[in-house]
Amino acid sequence: MPPTGSVPARRPLGTVTRGTTSPNRLRRMDRWIAHTHGAALRRSDEPPVAVDLGYGAAPWTAVELLLRLRRVRGDAEVAGLEIDPERVAAAKPYERSGLTFGRGGFEIPLPRPPLLIRAANVLRQYAEDDVPAAWERLCGRLAPGGLLVEGTCDEIGRRHVWVALGPEGPRTVTFAARLGSLTRPSDLAERLPKALIHRNVPGEAVHAFLRDFDRAWAAAAPYAPYGARQRWVRAAHALGTAWPLVDGPRRWRHGEVTIGWSALAPRPSGPSGA
User: Fold this and answer.
1) In sequence order, which residues have a C-beta less than 8 Å from that of residue 72 and are 6 or more positions away?
2) Total H helices, total E strands in the chain
3) Are the beta carbons of 123 and 114 closer than 8 angstroms?
4) Which terminus in the chain has less CB density within 10 A, N or C?
5) Does the keyword Methyltransferase apply (predicted)?
6) Pairing status of strand 49-53 against strand 116-120
């Protein structure tokens, strides 16, 4: 892939993030991407391009994304994009074949549309009303069959929630955790992406979902002696009788649950993202 600097320079779209990052912070998200999007990566007629948007003050997440995608597609390429030029300069020594770093934001200034954009902990600092436009712009930069994964996680990657979107818009929401870190599934509420975090209130679907997940978790307490994983799987089984989960035990055993976006989409008359 040509270096990102080969595209005419323009002012990046977006706001500089805090830059917090650490090794393996996005491992759970990457693992899910490789499973869910692996077939599309393998079908690509040319080396698939992925973007790590807003990778932060250190390049670790972009380096790791390349390694994980190359287990699925050996010639995958990753472009790390940051608005802050100092972060780009600091990452340049880590460039290698298939891995580049450049200055950019929501405009995704690459010569070839990416098959994947990962935007982790980027929109958290924006207003809720800003999210639809950001999603639309990023999805508009995807190659045919591409995927945008946008969400939030804690500082060491124990708890994640992310939305997966295609060119047509949001598809699913995934809740993922190191299960030993949870007392109940609703502990993940603090990591809801910006589109949902202000909607965790009575009357909104995401609030009802987390309430029901907690109830299913409580009912699965007899499985606790067999470990948190078995308890999570049993709770997910029960939850799936009332909510449209789109995955199954194979993913649940990884501490994940994925549900269709339409089931959790905010009510138009709900609270604003103030």
Assistant:
1) 34, 38, 41, 42
2) 9, 8
3) no
4) C
5) yes
6) parallel
CA pair distance 48, 54, nearest whole angstrom: 19
pLDDT for the residue numbered 99: 98
State the maximum Cα–Cα separation within the chain, in Å, rounded to a whole number: 61
CA distance from start to end of the chain: 40
pLDDT along the chain (274 residues), means of 10: 44 71 90 97 97 95 97 98 95 97 96 97 94 97 97 95 96 97 96 97 98 98 97 98 97 98 86 42
Count of Cβ atoms closer than 10 Å to residue 237 Cβ: 15
pTM (2 d.p.): 0.92
User: What separation in angstroms does the CA of 261 have from each of 78, 94, 146?
Assistant: 27, 36, 17
Q: Which domains does the chain show, CATH number per domain?
A: 4-167 (3.40.50.150)
d(CA 273, CA 60): 31
d(Cα 149, Cα 161) in Å, to the nearest integer? 10
The confidence score (pLDDT) of residue 5 equals 41
Residue pair 65/100 in contact by the 8 Å Cβ criterion: no
Q: Which two structure tokens, joined as six digits, stand for 113?
A: 């549309």
Round the CA-based radius of gyration of the chain to a whole number and report it. 18
Task: Give φ, ψ of 63 to 5 degrees.
Answer: -60, -45
Residue 263 structure tokens: 């089931």
Which of 264, 209, 257 minimizes the C-alpha distance to 232?
257
User: Is 262 in a helix, a strand, or coil?
Assistant: helix
- Strands (DSSP E) found in 154-270: 159-166, 169-177, 256-260
- Closest by CA position to 114, among listed 217, 168, 44: 44
